[in-house]
Specification:
This protein has 256 residues and is of the alpha/beta class. The chain has a single domain, classed as Rossmann fold (3-Layer(aba) Sandwich), CATH 3.40.50. Helix content is 47%, strand content 11%. Strands 3-2-1-4-6-5 form a 6-stranded mixed beta sheet, with helices on both faces. The relative contact order is 0.16.
Length: 256
C-alpha cells in the first residue's frame, strides 16, 4: 500500500477502536456474529474485527454469517469462497425473504418488512450459533442520515444506537463503524480487494437507492452542505453525544 492507503487504514482502525472503547462493545469471551451482506460496509467491518482479534487484549470469537434472501442471481458462493480463502469461520444460510415480502407487501414499498424479517433472522441465527453479540456495518453517514431523517420527516431527535440489547433480549447489537465515514470505507474496501456482491433486491441493490427518496434527499443535502462546511458530518455525529437536556423542548427531560 502507498502512503495514502496506509494513512486511510490507520484512520479506519482508529475509528473502530475508539467506538469499541467508547461504548464497551467487546468483552473477554464474546462470540460475535458479523452480518456479512457482501456489501462494502460489512466486508470492511469483518476485516477490521478480524485483524483486531489477532492483537486485542481480550479474547473473542468471530463468525461471519451471510443470508441468501431468495433474490435471483445472488452469488453467495463468492462470499463463501472469499471467507474460506481467508480462513474466517463462516456460516451460509438461506431464508426466502423475497417470497414473503412479495406475498405480504401487496404493492407497497416493502423495505420495512424486509428489514424486520432480516433482523429476526439474525437474532435467531445468533441464538443457534451461541453468539452473544451481533455486529452490523452501519457507519457514520448512516447515523447522521438517520438523525436528519427523524428530525425532518418524523419530528424526533434520534438516530441509531451504537450498542443495544436486541428485541429478543438475548443478544447485544454493536455497530463498530459508527465513527467511520462511508467514503473512507468505500475506498478501503477497494484497497483490501473484497468481492462486492449485490443482494439482488430490485429496490435496494446498487448505489442509486431510487426507492428511498427521503434518504437520497438527505444524502444530496449533506453533499451540498459539505462544500461550505467540510466537517458537517463529524459535527453532527458529535452532537449526538453532546446533548443539553435543559435546552430541549422535551418536558420529560426537564429538572424540577
Amino acid at each position: 500500500m502507498n502512503r495514502d492507503d496506509i494513512k486511510l487504514e490507520k484512520k479506519i482502525f482508529k475509528a473502530v477502536g475508539k467506538a469499541i472503547g467508547d461504548f464497551d462493545m467487546i468483552q473477554d469471551g464474546d462470540h460475535i456474529m458479523v452480518a456479512v451482506s457482501g456489501g462494502k460496509d460489512s466486508w470492511v467491518l469483518l476485516h477490521v474485527l478480524n485483524e483486531l482479534q489477532k492483537k486485542a487484549p481480550v479474547n473473542f470469537e468471530l463468525t461471519a454469517l451471510n443470508i441468501d434472501q431468495g433474490y435471483g442471481n445472488f452469488r453467495q458462493d463468492k462470499i463463501e469462497d472469499f471467507l474460506d480463502s481467508r480462513n474466517i469461520k463462516s456460516i451460509m444460510k438461506d431464508f426466502d425473504i423475497a417470497s414473503i415480502v412479495e406475498e405480504k407487501s401487496q404493492g407497497s414499498v416493502p423495505c420495512s418488512l424486509c428489514a424486520r424479517l432480516r433482523r429476526g433472522a439474525l437474532y435467531g441465527y445468533a441464538q443457534k450459533l451461541k453468539c452473544n453479540k451481533i455486529a452490523l456495518g452501519h457507519h457514520l453517514d448512516d447515523f447522521v442520515e438517520t438523525l436528519l431523517l427523524n428530525q425532518f420527516f418524523i419530528g424526533k431527535t434520534a438516530s441509531m444506537s451504537p450498542k443495544l440489547n436486541s428485541d429478543n433480549g438475548e443478544n447485544t447489537v454493536i455497530r463498530p463503524l459508527v465513527y467511520a465515514e462511508e467514503n473512507d470505507i468505500r475506498i478501503y474496501a477497494k484497497n483490501i480487494e473484497v468481492p462486492i456482491v449485490c443482494c439482488e433486491c430490485p429496490l435496494a441493490c446498487g448505489e442509486n437507492l431510487h426507492f428511498d427518496h427521503k434518504r437520497r434527499k438527505i444524502k444530496n443535502l449533506l453533499t451540498e452542505l459539505e462544500k461550505d462546511i467540510p466537517h458537517i458530518k463529524s459535527s453532527l455525529i458529535k452532537s449526538l453525544s453532546n446533548i443539553k437536556p435543559s435546552h430541549m423542548l422535551d418536558r420529560n427531560l426537564w429538572t424540577h
